[in-house]
Design goal:
The protein is of the alpha+beta class. It is 34% helix and 27% strand. It comes from Streptomyces longwoodensis.
Length: 255
C-alpha cells in the first residue's frame, strides 16, 4: 500500500511496537501489516526505540519527544510527536476501559444486596426528603426456611440460629447471630457425623457488633444474617460451629 495513510487505518503502529495492544487488536494489525508497505516502513523506523517507547508508556503525563535524543536510533520529530500522542491516547483508552469495568463491578456489588427498596416520605406535609430502606436477601431466605436449629453459648453469650434446607448439591444454610461483638472474623463450619469439617460461610464483625441488645445504634442492635452452603447432605451433619479465624469457638449448634 502506498501514499498517505488515514489515521483510522494506521494509528496503531506505535502501540503495536510498544506491545500494548490486546490479542485481538494485535492480530487485526498484523493482518493489516502483511499488505501495508507504509506501516512496515514505520516499524523499520521504530527499530531500536524500545527504551523510548517504554518510557512513554510509563510516564504519568503525556511524555516528550526529547526522550529519543539519547537513543542511537532516533525518530523524525513528526513521528516522535505522533508516537507521544498515540501512546498517551492508548493509555487513556485503557484507563477508560478499566474504569468502566470497575464501575460495572461496583454496580453489581451495590445492586446485589438491594433487592427491594421502599421509598417513604415525599414533598407533601413538611417536605421531608425520601428515605430508602433495603431488604436483606439472606434474612429473607432465613425466614422462608422452616428447618431451624438454635443454641446459646453459656460462656460467650452468643446466640445463633442456622436455617437449613436439603439441596441436590448439598445443604443450603443461613446463619442468624446475636450478641456477637467485634472486631473479629468468623466462619460457620458444618461438622459431619464422620468428623468431616466444611466451611459454610465466613464474615467480618465490625467493632460495634451484631444483635447487641443494649447497643446505642439500630445498626448494632440488628442480628447478622449470612447465607452459605456445604456439599454434605442435611442428614450427614452432626452439628455446626461458629469459629473465629484465630480458633476460638463462639457457639456450637447441634443438628
Amino acid at each position: 500500500m502506498h501514499g498517505s495513510p488515514s489515521p483510522s487505518e494506521h494509528e496503531t503502529v506505535g502501540a503495536y511496537a510498544l506491545g500494548i495492544l490486546d490479542d485481538a487488536e494485535a492480530t487485526a494489525f498484523e493482518a493489516h501489516l502483511a499488505g501495508c508497505e507504509w506501516c512496515a516502513q514505520q516499524l523499520d523506523e521504530l527499530a531500536g526505540m524500545e527504551p523510548m517507547l517504554a518510557a512513554l508508556a510509563d510516564l504519568p503525563g503525556t511524555g516528550t519527544p526529547a526522550i529519543g535524543e539519547s537513543l542511537s536510533a532516533r525518530p523524525s520529530p513528526r513521528l516522535a510527536e505522533r508516537l507521544v500522542d498515540e501512546v498517551a491516547e492508548r493509555r487513556a483508552q485503557k484507563r477508560r476501559r478499566s474504569f468502566y469495568m470497575v464501575a460495572a463491578a461496583a454496580a453489581l456489588i451495590v445492586g446485589g444486596p438491594l433487592t427491594a427498596v421502599a421509598v417513604t416520605g415525599g414533598d407533601e406535609g413538611g417536605g421531608k426528603a425520601p428515605v430508602a430502606s433495603a431488604s436483606n436477601p439472606a434474612r429473607s431466605v432465613f425466614n422462608t426456611l422452616s428447618d431451624k436449629l438454635t443454641a446459646t453459648d453459656a460462656g460467650t453469650k452468643v446466640t445463633g440460629t442456622v436455617a437449613l434446607q436439603d439441596k441436590a448439591w448439598g445443604t443450603e444454610t443461613v446463619v442468624e447471630l446475636k450478641n456477637v461483638t467485634g472486631p473479629q472474623k468468623c466462619s460457620l463450619i458444618a461438622v459431619g457425623k464422620n468428623g468431616e469439617r466444611e466451611t459454610a460461610s465466613s464474615w467480618s464483625v465490625p467493632e460495634w457488633g451484631y444483635g447487641i441488645p443494649n447497643a446505642k445504634t439500630d445498626q448494632a442492635k440488628q442480628p447478622l444474617y449470612v447465607q452459605g452452603g456445604v456439599s454434605m447432605p442435611v442428614n450427614d451433619i452432626d452439628h455446626f460451629e461458629v469459629m473465629t479465624f484465630d480458633g476460638k469457638k463462639l457457639l456450637e449448634i447441634d443438628a
